[in-house]
Specification:
The chain is an alpha+beta fold. The chain is built from four helices and three strands. A three-stranded antiparallel β-sheet has the order 1-3-2. A hairpin with a 2-residue loop joins strand 2 and strand 3. This is PadR family transcriptional regulator.
Length: about 110
């Protein structure tokens, strides 16, 4: 059975989504719906909030993210997620590997016949 584009996208998300969340949080603390909107804007990086909250729990468990509750002007309090120093180190390690990895894959794909 040949993989579909959705199968490939799912595999790529599994390996990178947590680092995409860390990259988003490196800009500023955010709450879950904000993260979901940012990563799900084009449906490429993120497809469902059902995967986001367990992922945030794992990131907290690893010590890569801290959370605080903050009042919301439009509803119930929101849980804001903030990148920790350990999370920043994990993101830095990912970036160090990702850029040459991406370049190597791009290099191989450039030579493919159409």
């Amino acid at each position: 059975m040949e993989p579909t584009p959705d199968d490939v996208r799912t595999q790529l998300r599994r390996g990178t989504l947590e680092f995409c969340v860390l990259a988003h949080l490196a800009r500023s603390p955010a709450y879950g719906q904000d993260i979901a909107r940012a990563l799900g804007a084009d449906r490429m990086l993120f497809a469902s909030e059902g995967t986001l909250y367990p992922l945030l729990t794992r990131l907290r468990g690893r010590g890569w993210v801290d959370t605080t509750w903050q009042e919301s002007p439009t509803g119930p309090p929101r849980r804001y997620h903030r990148l920790t120093d350990s999370g920043r180190a994990a993101l830095d390690a990912f970036v160090e590997v990702w850029r040459p990895y991406r370049a190597a894959v791009d290099h191989l794909l450039e030579g493919l016949p159409a």
